[in-house]
Amino acid sequence: MKRRPRRYPSDLTDKEWEILKPLLPAPGANQKNSQRRIIDSLLYLDRTGCQWRWLPHEYPAWSSVYYHFAKWTKQEVWEGINTALGKIDRQKRGRTATPSGALIDSQSVKTSKEAGNVGFDGGKMIKGHKRHTLADTLGNLLKVVVTAANISDIAGAKLIVTNLADVFSTIQKIWADGGYRGNLIEWVQETLDAVLEIVSREPGQKGFKVQPKRWVIERTFAWLGNYRRLSKDYERLLSTSEAMIYLASINTMLTRIAR
Known about the structure:
Elements: H1 14-20, H2 35-48, H3 62-74, H4 77-92, E1 101-110, E2 119-121, E3 126-136, E4 141-148, H5 153-161, E5 173-176, H6 184-192, E6 195-198, H7 214-224, H8 238-258
Helix pairs in contact: 1-8, 2-3, 2-8, 4-8, 5-6
């Protein structure tokens, strides 16, 4: 089989495409552009942070790329693919397909002027959106919910944990920092039948120190930080923000699995 040349570093390799292809919806009968080129376009946009209309001319028309992106976002395709790849990656590393442990944290980011549902995070002094994130103990993204930045960590955690058992019923423990302390511990036990363990700073600790387990989700944020589209939230819709995060996670896991 003749290898297709990669036009840009963000384009999928043949091996990555073979892994991803079965996870995508079946192409429509009248679909003109290949799904692979659509995905390549989206990865370029997510990785470089360019605007939709500034996609290089080697890719399909931006309007066609956006059409498929919006359709798959509405159908929750990105979250489904992310979950499927997470299972593949875990099994490849000798783990069970679904995790028994997870970590939760949030990240407040500034938004562009077009963004909707904006709030102010008084703790971080940031006006924008907040990314409530759940990752497994390998650092792979399990679920993300984007809200206005004024939504508390506890309220965001409840948005993540609600219905989580439908996909990740094996989770028995979730690690979190002190911002999640309070009645959330009992709520998680009742809702998910899991233990929420607060990882606290050592008594008298000054400055930064790596916390057990907690460093894993910080690495998750670092992986996502490789995608310039996520350097701030440029999206108008919260659902689009979540989709861009899942897309970055998908690309990260694809690279690892293919390697």
